Task: structure prediction
Amino acid sequence: MPNQKKLFLRALAGETLPTPPIWLMRQAGRYLPEYRATRGEAGSFLDLCYNPDLACEVTLQPLRRYDFDAAILFSDILVIPQALGQHLAFKQGEGPQLDPIRDQAGLTRLNIDGIHDVLGPIYETVAKLSSAIPEHTTLIGFAGAPWTVATYMVEGKGSKDFANIRRFAYGDPDGFAKLIDILVEATTQYLLAQIKAGAEVIQLFETWGGVLSENGFHRWVIEPTCKIVQNIKAEYPDMPIIGFPRGAGLHLLDFKNLTGVDAVGLDSGVPLKWVAENLQKLGPVQGNLDPMYLITGGDEMLAETRRILTTLGNGPFIFNLGHGITPETPPENVGKLVDFIRNGG
Ligand code: CP3
Result:
């Protein structure tokens, strides 16, 4: 059982550790000068995602600096719509842009048959990483959860109010279910291929679940996530799966109980005493330092980190942020955070 040595897998298996394993969402990214250099070499952000050598390189960069307990595949959640045939571009400073699908008729533009032809280079990156990461490091594969990926497919870009997708989902639930079903199937196939290539843990990013109504959350977040978890566990019963339902609030217990995920990622707004007394009794949790603390990086960051460690450290726990690290973060503050945690907080 060589894997049992990896701290990250031990925490995911439910062990309470004296020092929690650490990784950070978006740990490879623009805050690192070496990332910016490699990205310049690759061309566009998407060119980087589909270049196995360079994607492997940027995944390893934060490990060299901070020796994180986990490496996360460098890619993006929006490669799935692209592989399904929806046009995708990342415009400098504007984020993702897609040709929006606003109704059931728009689904004819999607085709699941050829996804592995597009996604092949990403599986190659996973395979390269699997042999390139240090022995004590765990390799995380990931995908966006269907609702969150659908928000970009329907809105065509990032959104503040998600009016188009809510109108589609609430107004034509049967038509919208067809889109979600396509995403459940494509995401399942994508994640199974990542696992075959060497991913040891899967994280599902549900960044925008918090904008839904109560029934909407059950139908479009919990049900599709549950199906993906069941599909993966049918082939890999022991594969640990982390769900990150950002903004889920009072839905967190249902999310944990009804989806079958092994661990739950927490955003920075979740009350930690409640987590320790309720959610963490059901399984490992991961989170949840507000990434903005990393920008100033002073005593406030350390005090908040200590509060998180003290409150969640008595159960199975993985240290992370409550959302992705931002490009403005000074890299030395990340080092300060990691040292503080590894020295016992
Ligand atoms: O965590 C990691 O280091 C792994 C790589 C990763 C990226 N995106 C790289 C990336 C992961 C896991 C993601 C997930 C992702 N992508 C999510 C879910 C998590 C979250 O942050 O909410 C979402 C919603 C996306 C979609 C996306 N990708 C947006 C909205 C943007 C533009 C905003 C931005 O930060 O620029 C991206 C681009 C993106 N994905 C970058 C990186 C490093 C920046 C691209 C660049 O180099 O310019």
